[in-house]
Amino acid sequence: MTYEKYSGTEYSYAVPQSINGQPCTAIADKAFLSNKTLHELILPSTVTQIGSWAFAHMHHLEKLTVPCISLQFGKQIFLDCPQLSCVHVAGDSSDNPGLPYFLASAVTILGKEELFDPKAAASLETHPKWMQEYDHALSAFINAPDESNFEPVFYGWFNDEDAEAQLPRYLEQCRRRKVYLVFLRLLYPLHLSHDSKKELQNYLADHMPDGAKASDHTVVWDCLLTDHFGEDIRCMQILKDAGILTETQIARLLEYLQPGNPEVTAYLLRLRESLRQDTDRFEQFRL
Predict the structure, then answer these.
(1) Confidence at residue 185, expressed as pLDDT on a 0 to 100 scale
(2) Are 89 and 121 spatial neighbours (Cβ–Cβ below 8 Å)?
(3) Quick one: average pLDDT of 153-168?
(4) Model-level pTM?
(5) Could you say which of 72, 89, 166, 261 would form a disulfide bridge with 118 (CB–CB 3.0 to 4.6 Å)?
(6) Is the pLDDT of residue 247 over 70?
(7) What is the DSSP string of 150-177?
(8) Stretch among 8-17, 95-104, 120-129, 238-247 having the lowest mean pLDDT
(9) How far is CA 268 from CA 209, 222, 231, 274, in A?
(10) Residue 265, class by beta-carbon neighbours within 10 Å (0-12 exposed, 13-18 middle, 19+ buried)?
């Protein structure tokens, strides 16, 4: 049986396992199209097919739970789902706490619907290969010109000046997404190769203040503040491990993140003191 159309107003909804006594095996085309209330959606283990545009334009959808199988799906099932950040797989055996975020970003940011394979992503045996494919897509995304996929939106009468006005906003959003994904992958580095890790660290270095691409306006600072990465001490450790937290950068961070997380502030203060002591010892050695 096919689940045809959702017409409720719930915050969270679980598609029933059976309809009229028969297993629910498919989600119809446009079944949840443009829903304005759902934040969480749970698909039953019986579902094997998802129709075209099934979840398109669900502007508030944040979490989706799917069964651990290789789903068949139609066109653009996640078109314009800007808040979707977690795709949980029931029965996930990958042992990777970052997988829900990687699955979501694969389809919402990277635009790689071919990576939407819950069984390959969440099975212990195939997860490493799936992560390699994800990392390949991530590398292509962060290295592509920021304006490469820009498509102006038409609002009635349209001219070149309208496109020029939309471009800066698009570039800012693109750069923010890139830094977000870089932090996300470094936060959950399971199966991350040495070369890929170095590439991601270099990207962060380039987008720090005074970095090679700091003139892009959206730098690491912006994601630390707007995506709450600045409240996570692990992100400070990522910057330290990348070798890009100088005493000057730490001073800027302490000012930029105020009032901030006390744990993060204490970590940065200890790190600054450690750098100062190392500098003092080096100066003594030179003498």
Answers:
(1) 98
(2) yes
(3) 65
(4) 0.90
(5) 89
(6) yes
(7) --PPP-SS--HHHHHHHHHHHHHHHHHH
(8) 238-247
(9) 17, 18, 12, 10
(10) middle
